[in-house]
Design a protein that fits this description.
There is one protein chain. The chain is mainly β and 112 residues long. It has no helices and 7 strands.
Length: 112
Protein backbone atom coordinates (compact mmCIF):
# COMPACT_ATOMS: atom_id res chain seq x y z
CA UNK A 1 0.00 0.00 0.00
CA UNK A 2 1.35 3.41 -0.86
CA UNK A 3 0.75 6.71 0.80
CA UNK A 4 0.87 10.29 -0.51
CA UNK A 5 4.60 10.66 0.29
CA UNK A 6 5.73 7.38 -1.34
CA UNK A 7 7.73 7.52 -4.54
CA UNK A 8 8.44 4.89 -7.14
CA UNK A 9 11.30 4.89 -9.61
CA UNK A 10 10.58 4.18 -13.25
CA UNK A 11 13.32 3.48 -15.77
CA UNK A 12 12.41 4.04 -19.42
CA UNK A 13 14.58 2.58 -22.12
CA UNK A 14 14.03 3.49 -25.75
CA UNK A 15 14.60 0.83 -28.36
CA UNK A 16 16.34 -1.54 -25.96
CA UNK A 17 13.72 -4.24 -26.48
CA UNK A 18 14.24 -4.40 -30.24
CA UNK A 19 10.94 -2.64 -30.87
CA UNK A 20 10.14 0.26 -33.13
CA UNK A 21 12.91 2.85 -33.06
CA UNK A 22 15.59 0.29 -32.23
CA UNK A 23 18.73 -0.27 -34.25
CA UNK A 24 18.70 -3.17 -36.71
CA UNK A 25 20.12 -6.46 -35.45
CA UNK A 26 22.33 -8.84 -37.39
CA UNK A 27 21.94 -11.85 -35.15
CA UNK A 28 23.15 -14.65 -37.38
CA UNK A 29 26.20 -14.76 -39.65
CA UNK A 30 27.46 -17.92 -41.34
CA UNK A 31 30.01 -18.17 -44.15
CA UNK A 32 30.29 -21.02 -46.63
CA UNK A 33 33.38 -21.33 -48.79
CA UNK A 34 32.46 -23.83 -51.52
CA UNK A 35 35.87 -23.82 -53.18
CA UNK A 36 36.61 -21.88 -56.35
CA UNK A 37 33.17 -20.27 -56.63
CA UNK A 38 33.68 -17.63 -53.95
CA UNK A 39 32.08 -17.19 -50.53
CA UNK A 40 28.41 -17.28 -49.53
CA UNK A 41 27.74 -15.12 -46.47
CA UNK A 42 24.41 -15.98 -44.87
CA UNK A 43 23.00 -13.34 -42.53
CA UNK A 44 19.81 -12.72 -40.61
CA UNK A 45 18.55 -9.15 -40.19
CA UNK A 46 15.76 -8.05 -37.86
CA UNK A 47 14.57 -4.49 -37.50
CA UNK A 48 11.03 -4.34 -36.06
CA UNK A 49 9.11 -1.26 -37.05
CA UNK A 50 11.45 -0.43 -39.95
CA UNK A 51 10.88 -1.60 -43.51
CA UNK A 52 14.29 -0.55 -44.83
CA UNK A 53 16.08 -0.36 -47.12
CA UNK A 54 19.34 -0.98 -45.26
CA UNK A 55 22.90 -0.08 -46.17
CA UNK A 56 25.48 -2.74 -45.35
CA UNK A 57 29.18 -2.70 -44.64
CA UNK A 58 30.83 -6.09 -45.22
CA UNK A 59 34.53 -6.46 -44.57
CA UNK A 60 35.63 -9.79 -46.03
CA UNK A 61 39.02 -9.80 -44.30
CA UNK A 62 40.88 -8.55 -47.37
CA UNK A 63 38.51 -5.97 -48.83
CA UNK A 64 35.26 -4.17 -48.01
CA UNK A 65 31.95 -4.02 -49.88
CA UNK A 66 29.06 -1.65 -49.15
CA UNK A 67 25.82 -2.92 -50.68
CA UNK A 68 23.28 -0.07 -50.65
CA UNK A 69 19.48 -0.05 -50.45
CA UNK A 70 19.10 -3.75 -49.57
CA UNK A 71 15.40 -4.45 -49.03
CA UNK A 72 15.62 -7.98 -47.57
CA UNK A 73 14.93 -8.89 -43.94
CA UNK A 74 15.05 -12.28 -42.31
CA UNK A 75 17.64 -14.72 -43.63
CA UNK A 76 19.40 -14.11 -46.93
CA UNK A 77 22.90 -14.27 -48.41
CA UNK A 78 25.57 -12.08 -49.94
CA UNK A 79 27.90 -13.60 -52.52
CA UNK A 80 31.56 -12.80 -52.94
CA UNK A 81 32.33 -14.22 -56.37
CA UNK A 82 36.13 -14.21 -56.07
CA UNK A 83 37.90 -16.73 -53.87
CA UNK A 84 40.51 -15.50 -51.41
CA UNK A 85 43.96 -15.09 -52.92
CA UNK A 86 45.68 -15.95 -49.63
CA UNK A 87 45.01 -18.79 -47.23
CA UNK A 88 42.96 -18.01 -44.11
CA UNK A 89 41.89 -17.50 -41.56
CA UNK A 90 39.89 -14.45 -42.63
CA UNK A 91 37.53 -12.60 -40.29
CA UNK A 92 34.37 -11.37 -42.01
CA UNK A 93 32.51 -8.55 -40.25
CA UNK A 94 29.10 -7.13 -41.16
CA UNK A 95 26.81 -4.37 -39.97
CA UNK A 96 23.62 -2.83 -41.29
CA UNK A 97 22.36 0.76 -41.11
CA UNK A 98 18.66 1.57 -41.37
CA UNK A 99 17.16 4.62 -43.13
CA UNK A 100 17.06 6.53 -39.83
CA UNK A 101 20.83 6.16 -39.43
CA UNK A 102 20.76 3.54 -36.67
CA UNK A 103 23.49 0.92 -37.10
CA UNK A 104 23.56 -2.64 -35.85
CA UNK A 105 26.32 -4.02 -33.70
CA UNK A 106 29.08 -5.61 -35.74
CA UNK A 107 28.68 -9.35 -36.28
CA UNK A 108 31.62 -11.53 -37.25
CA UNK A 109 32.54 -14.98 -38.52
CA UNK A 110 35.92 -16.55 -39.30
CA UNK A 111 36.55 -18.57 -42.47
CA UNK A 112 39.53 -20.83 -43.03
Amino acid sequence: MTGPGDQRAVLWTLGADGGEGAAPAVDRVHAVVPGLSGVWLRVRLTDPGDSGPWDWHIHWGDRADTPQDVTYTGEFAFLRREPYTTYGPHTITVRATDPGGLTSATAAVIVQ
